[in-house]
Design a protein that fits this description.
Blueprint lengths: L1 E5 L3 H12 L3 E5 L6 E6 L5 E5 L2 H5 L3 E4 L3 H11 L8 E5 L5 H8 L5 E6 L2 E6 L2 E6 L3 E5 L2 H4 L4 H8 L3 E3 L3 H22 L12 H17 L1
Parallel strand pairs: 1-2, 1-5, 2-4, 3-9, 5-6, 6-7, 10-11
Antiparallel strand pairs: 3-4, 7-10, 8-9
This protein binds NADP nicotinamide-adenine-dinucleotide phosphate.
NADP nicotinamide-adenine-dinucleotide phosphate (NAP) binds next to helix 1, helix 3 and strand 8.
Length: 219
């Protein structure tokens, strides 16, 4: 398939490299101005991918968006004009609220949401480390996206394990709840994730989850 990765940071580079190794034609859209970018995963052989080429976008079967949530709408806005209406748009990021806007701005494109527990760390602009083996869930957001379950095999072939989840929003809410609990507390107290199992953190964790639960219930 022709796949464009928008936002080749840590997670985007991991997927770009893996999809390329699985035999797909992968191109990048990044904030860098060069027409080609080198990319290396761990100590593997470096590859070179096209960058910011409108023709890659016009021919793309899949646009994998791996920028962070607040960057999704501005990044897509610039590309919208060159995006084919049949191109499947896959949003892979933590956080909520982008899918509704993307669906309204790209009403004809199949829209798929993804969440991953792989760990990736950008060692330098052109080298990414796969720091943690995880799994990825994909699921349709709109009716055309619901018909894209074949993507499970495409993505699984590149970077297993991958599951198709008919209720992908549940998976995203769960990830959000986990992040609401773990991210602030580990940062504030400068502790590792596992230390939050300590009894001392329980009251704060319960308060945080109660608040997330209230928001989920309203939604
Ligand atoms: N890293 C992980 O292990 C991991 C694991 C699971 C989920 N996630 C989630 O995946 C998402 C991405 O995380 P990440 O760690 O990969 O972040 P990241 O390394 O910062 O990657 C985001 C990339 O998007 C680029 N970008 C921003 N705006 C752009 C634009 N308008 N056009 C093109 N490219 C643009 C950034 O470029 P600049 O760097 O030049 O600004 C950066 O390279 C986040 O939601 C994160 O929570 C990450």
């Amino acid at each position: 398939m022709n796949i464009v990765v928008l936002g080749p940071g840590a997670i985007g580079s991991l997927w770009a490299y893996s999809l390329h190794q699985a035999g797909h034609t992968v191109a990048l859209y990044s904030k860098q101005e060069h027409d080609k970018l080198p990319l290396q995963l761990d100590g593997n052989t470096p590859i070179t991918l096209a960058n910011n080429q409108p023709v890659s976008l016009q021919n793309a079967d899949v646009l994998l968006v791996t920028v962070k949530a607040p960057q999704v709408i501005p990044a897509l806005e610039v590309l919208r004009i060159d995006l084919h209406p049949d191109c499947i748009v896959v949003l892979m990021h933590n956080g909520m609220g982008t899918a509704e806007i993307v669906a309204s701005r790209l009403p004809n494109n199949p829209l798929v949401l993804a969440t991953t527990t792989h760990g990736a760390l950008r060692q330098s602009r052109h080298q990414v480390l796969h720091t943690g083996q995880g799994s990825t869930q994909l699921g349709g957001y709109n009716s055309k996206g619901n018909q894209c379950d074949f993507l499970q095999q495409v993505f699984a072939h590149a970077l297993p394990d991958v599951y198709w989840n008919e209720n992908i929003l549940d998976a995203l809410w769960l990830k959000l709840a986990i992040n609401c609990a773990i991210n602030p507390l580990t940062a504030i107290h400068q502790v590792k994730n596992g230390q939050l199992a300590d009894e001392a953190f329980k009251p704060t964790l319960l308060q945080l989850l109660d608040e997330v639960h209230q928001v989920m219930t309203c939604e």
